[in-house]
Design brief:
The protein has helices spanning about 5, 30-45, 60-65, 75-100, 115, 120-135, 155-165, 205-210, 220-235, 250-255, 270-280, 290-300, 340-345, 355, and strands at about 15-20, 50-55, 105-110, 135-140, 170-175, 195-200, 235-240, 260, 285-290, 310, 320-325, 330-335, 370-375. The chain is of the alpha/beta class.
Length: about 375
């Protein structure tokens, strides 16, 4: 057992995300045996004094059975209608099973707007932390019934990472249909090996990430890597593991070498940067060079125009953008200039900004470090 794994024993605030494929049979109907094992695992950890949060997929799958559907709906309106049926069914099942193990649960439905708006972000945070203080296990899902594309999170891997930033979780466990991250796709490459620990997420891991493992789930390995980047940047360890084995959540929390562990960064980011990480929707993208990436990631520097190589999207000063390097997001931040002005000053020294823009009183930074949070 490695020191990294041993440290998981001491985690106090733990999010468990379970995918649809682990809650259903191949028929698409709910797998009560697996759900009961998951509930028992979480309830037992709660009895140990840990604060547990469940992010659960399965609303659409739960609604398919009563409606006589054999395939997931293909359009958004039908998905929302089926989810409206399934959310009540799924919560009833969870409430009944958790009650059998002496636990009280409460449902929380979120959309991206709940993280994008700072006041809603703080309200979501306060509500979830109060629930945990009262001994309630929050059961969280995206509010599929009302979510539209503009405010849709899209998958529960991302949702669980968003929640980890909101509540300052210690550990995020993605219970999946795959054993973890492999060196290649194990379904096509017999030489593929499980990667036990990832201490730094770089482009290599995005390159080897494949698609979704089943037709039931919506999140592939790439979304899990993206979730790991968010969670670890916010100070939470993350583990990807299969839910096929019995007691997997408890065994991970006991320090067993299961799945792939993504090691958290040592960080103490304040609420504003947690808000930036949690799911605020970017209005555009800025592309930077290698020197700029090092300055942001290794030294926590501001983003200066000299390191910017490209601008994508139309946005205003004060908007949130994603900072990109080599095809992956490395940071998010609030810009001091609109997209047109950034495009004009990109690649130039700070001292040239006033002359280029033709007016005084300009900012030295495109994004000040206080408004910039790294995602790697």
């Amino acid at each position: 057992m490695t020191d990294f794994r041993k440290s998981l024993r001491d985690k106090k605030r733990i999010i468990v995300k379970v995918g649809s494929s682990n809650l259903t049979h191949e028929t698409g109907k709910l797998n009560y045996h697996r759900i009961d094992r998951l509930v028992r695992d979480i309830a037992d950890l709660a009895n140990q004094g840990k604060q547990m949060i469940l992010v659960s997929s399965g609303a659409v799958s739960a609604g398919m059975g009563p409606l006589g559907l054999t395939e997931r709906p293909s359009n958004i309106r039908e998905k929302q209608a089926v989810a409206a049926v399934g959310q009540g069914i799924l919560l009833h099942i969870y409430e009944k099973m958790f009650r059998e193990y002496g636990q009280t649960v409460g449902q929380v439905l979120l959309t991206r707007m709940d993280a994008q708006n700072r006041s809603k972000f703080m309200n979501s945070r306060n509500t979830l932390l109060t629930m945990l203080d009262m001994g309630i296990i929050p059961i969280i899902n995206e509010n599929d019934v009302v979510a539209v594309d503009e405010f849709k999170i899209g998958d529960n891997d991302t949702l669980s990472a968003m929640v980890s930033t909101i509540i300052e979780a210690d550990l995020l466990i993605l219970v999946s249909d795959v054993e973890g991250l492999y060196t290649a796709n194990p379904q096509t490459d017999p030489e593929a090996k499980l990667i036990p620990v990832v201490d730094e997420i770089d482009k290599h891991f995005y390159d080897i990430a494949g698609g979704a493992g089943t037709s039931i789930g919506t999140g592939g390995m790439r979304t899990k890597i993206q979730a790991a980047a968010i969670a670890t940047s916010a100070g939470a360890d993350m583990v990807i593991a299969t839910g096929i084995d019995d007691g997997v959540v408890g065994r991970i929390c006991a320090g067993e070498d299961i799945g792939t562990l993504f090691v958290a960064k040592e960080t103490n980011i304040h609420a504003k940067k947690r808000w930036l990480l949690s799911g605020s929707k970017p209005a555009g993208r800025l592309f930077v060079d290698a020197g700029c990436r090092r300055a942001i990631i290794e030294r926590g520097s501001s983003l200066l125009p000299v390191g910017i190589t490209g601008v994508e999207g139309t946005f205003r000063d004060g908007d949130i953008v994603t900072v990109m390097y080599d095809g992956i997001a490395i940071a998010k931040g609030v810009v001091n200039y609109n997209s047109y002005n950034i495009d004009v000053i990109k690649g130039h020294q700070t001292g040239d900004i006033a002359k280029i823009l033709g007016h005084e009183g300009v900012y030295e930074e495109v994004i000040h470090r206080d408004n910039l949070v790294a995602i790697q």
